[in-house]
Amino acid sequence: MAYKLKDIKEENLKGPERKAKAHLIAQSPNMRPLELVDYSFFLYLAMIFLLIAYFSRKTSITLWHLSIHGGYFAMGALILLMNARRPNGVTFFCRTWYVPFLYVFLFEEVGQLIHLFRPIMFDHWVVSLENSVFGGYPTAWLQGMANPWITEVMSLFYMTYYFLIPVLGFMFYFGRELNPLNDFIFTTSITFFFCFLHYLAMPVAGPIFLPQVLPFPLVLLQGGPLTRFEQWLFFKGAIQGGAFPSSHVAVAVVVLFFAIRYGKYAYAFALTITGLAISTVYNGYHYGVDVIYGIGVGLVFSLVCPWVNRAWRSASVSKR
After folding, report:
1. Residue span of the structural domain in which 267 resides
2. How far apart are CA 122 and CA 100, in angstroms?
3. I need a surface site. Which of 219, 233, 236, 309 has the fewest CB within 10 A?
């Protein structure tokens, strides 16, 4: 039996039919065995591998991080190989989502490598830039309005970040909109990889980690259960040195761009992401200029990456 792309939406295929459907998905123009996001993922791993090998050759941490990196590489290669050799619903899901799944691990790894070749933080420079751009300090302005209710709302907005990528991504995935999903994952990946490398080149801790450089006192924010949970989550997962630009805001802008472009509850995403951007400054996690820079990074990659991805895929089709 031959299948067309429209048959991908049929959910009750069994046996050989299910295998044929999965093979069609894996090999169709909508998702190839190797996409540009896969190449960018392995290139990023290679860059970090070389940085660790060159700058930390005599430290005890080197072997550990090289081993972890080897594990990431092996996992990605194995998932891609399994999907190519034995395509089915499970391998296709893993093949699609393995890079986003690793974002948090790559972020945490950068935190451990933050002083790989920059032994200082650049918060003094960012504080000066903040004053030059805004004529003051947005964190101080926002925290001047602090009360438990506002803090609780800001904590809720901040935590929405953890759901933005899977919510929009699953809309594309389960709607079988594989081309937009491909562009979306590639764009978020490049945005993250740029931010991670930027942190190594210019680590900035953020107000909450270096309050001694601030010309104003931070407010000890008090709220309800959401605030307590959000603060626990932040201090468990945050890294010191990953503030400038705000990867939270940069990736949120990418999410908003794709939500608007493909009509996926754009107003809801716009409200949520606006609240998220404000909350990063209100909570003292980011400087105002971190947010502005993050917006710029997100916009640039949102405009460039889908075009690059589509051009690459068109070129690869023409070579077949």
Report:
1. 121-315
2. 29
3. 236
